[in-house]
Each structure stands twice: as structure tokens, then as C-alpha cells.
Amino acid sequence: MDDGSGLDVVKEISKIKKDSRIVMLTGYGNLPTAVAAVKAGAIDYIAKPVDADDVEAALLASPESKAKPPENPMSADRVKWEHIHRVFELCNRNVSETARRLKMHRRTLQRILSKRSPR
Question: Is a pLDDT exceeding 90 seen at residue 99?
């Protein structure tokens, strides 16, 4: 979202309609945001890629039950790769700025950026 955060949307929906069931989908999932989403009123927080069955299961699950773990979660290497590329894009593809923000050596970052994504 260019003009805000999905967390803002979750908060507003929760204020307007208390009994709503909100599932937050994200391209770049992380634990602090997941916790914030649930505290704001979301019943589940799912990182993409996701299929309709996962969303349906989250919406239809009983409020007392825990969410089932994903069938095909991203590997830790893939999550790291996605995060690095996201920061790189947010830094307008500036390698030096990205390396500084990620607290890594510029050459290490260049090597990671030149490789294909892990599975």
C-alpha cells in the first residue's frame, strides 16, 4: 500500500465492525507485524504465496482453534532472500544504502543480489 499500512486497515475495520473476521495477507511476513496484526484485530496473518483454500480455512476456522501450519512454507533462505530484495527495492536499488541498512558488507550484498532465489 502506497498511502498507509495494512495494519491501519485492520484497526479501522475492527473499530467499525467488531464481529468481523479479518485475515491479513502480506508479501513480506515477519513476526512483529504478525503480532501487531493479531493485536489490531486480525484472526490470522498469512504470508504470500497463498491459495484460496488457505484463506477460506482461516476465515472458517473456529475462533478457539489454532491455525494449522502452512503446507509449503518458504524456506529460511527464501525468507532471507525476499527480505534483502525488499530492502534493496525500498532503497531505490542502491547497493551501498541497502548494505548499510542491513548492516552487511557491500560486496556480500552484491553476491547475494547476483544469485537466483532459493526454493
Answer: yes
Q: Where exactly are the structural domains of the chain?
A: 6-60, 76-114
Strand-pairing partners, residue 26, are: 47
Q: List Cα–Cα distances, 61 to 83, 92, 117, in angstroms.
A: 30, 40, 33
Provide the CATH topology of domain 6-60.
Answer: Rossmann fold (3.40.50)
Q: 3-class SS at 47?
A: strand
**CA atoms of 103 and 100, how far apart (whole Å):** 5
CA dist 1 and 12 (Å) reads 15
Fold of the 76-114 domain: Arc Repressor Mutant, subunit A (1.10.10)
| Residue matched to cell numbers 533462505 | 77
Using a cut of 0.85, tell me whether the model's pTM lies above it. Answer: no
Residue 34, phi then psi, degrees to nearest 5:
-60, -45
Alpha-carbon distance of 14 to 54, in angstroms, equals 22
Q: How many CA atoms lie within 13 A of 105 on its CB side?
A: 3
